[in-house]
Amino acid sequence: MNCQILAIDIFDFAELLISNNIIQDAKSLYDASAKLQCSENNSEWNYECGGLKFSVEGSVAGSIPQQIDLVEIIFSFSAIGIFSNDDVCRNPLSKLNFDIELEGFREMEDKIDNYFASWHLDKHIKSSQCSYIHPEYHLTFGGNKLEGKGVDNFGSTLILPAPRITYPPMDVVLGIDFILRNYFPLEEISKLLDDSKYKEIVFNSQQRLWKPYYSSLSSAWNNFPYTTFEQGFEHFNLNPHIHQA
């Protein structure tokens, strides 16, 4: 795996999203692909994609309020990643910014009400002090994007910090796949999900990010397929919930 292969995957992924009417503007994906294509670095990769917009007509199942007419999802991503091998299991990302912002619209008589939510995939900064359990990668509801909307948007509702949910690292491909599978009706995306090129691109991202992640977790019980694990990327750092005998 190298930057050129990754560049092709992101370009092809953008083409699939456009041709299947999933997004209207894939410029930041094309820009990321172009940046990677010009890279001569075979040890790491980095790119950013901002403001990728997805629209879901009608209510998303389980949403509150229930009567939402439209949900707009904005996805922003940037990261620096490491190309690994089968000898040493390394943390696939050295830096990560990953935010999903959601805005729901509801037409009420002569006005339109809007509602906000956001998810943040965080990578633990080792130098920071932790008051609570802190997996290396974790999903949190809210975060800076939601706080930035202002307290007044939430009336008297009490919103407490959500648990840090252990989750594997994601790149822009896996992030978009996450959005599609969690917010789009299956009948709207089934053709895309079944596309062989789509499956191949997602598999490549999982191979690059999830193979080392899950291999490290599984080392709590066995060491296959790696023989050495990078310091700080051991299973007890990835998921502090795992107890050692």
Question: Would you write up a description of this structure?
Answer:
- The chain is of the alpha+beta class and 245 residues long.
- The protein has one domain (3-238).
- Helices cover 32% and strands 27% of the residues.
- The protein is built from seven helices and eight strands, in the order ααββββββαβαααβα.
- The chain has helices at 3-19, 27-37, 144-147, 172-183, 186-193, 196-218, 235-238; strands at 44-57, 70-82, 88-89, 93-108, 111-123, 137-141, 165-166, 228-229.
- The protein has a six-stranded antiparallel β-sheet with strand order 1-2-4-5-6-7.
- A hairpin with a 2-residue loop joins strand 4 and strand 5 (111-123).
- Helix 1 (3-19) packs antiparallel against helix 2 and helix 1 (3-19) packs across helix 6.
- The protein is globular, with a radius of gyration of 19 Å.
- Residues 155-160 have low confidence and may be disordered.
How would the blueprint of this fold be written?
Blueprint: H1 3-19, H2 27-37, E1 44-57, E2 70-82, E3 88-89, E4 93-108, E5 111-123, E6 137-141, H3 144-147, E7 165-166, H4 172-183, H5 186-193, H6 196-218, E8 228-229, H7 235-238
Parallel strand pairs: 3-8
Antiparallel strand pairs: 1-2, 2-4, 4-5, 5-6, 6-7
Concise summary:
This protein is α+β, with helices and mostly antiparallel strands and 245 residues long. The protein has seven helices and eight strands, in the order ααββββββαβαααβα. The strands form two sheets. The chain has a six-stranded antiparallel β-sheet with strand order 1-2-4-5-6-7. Strands 3-8 form a two-stranded parallel ribbon.
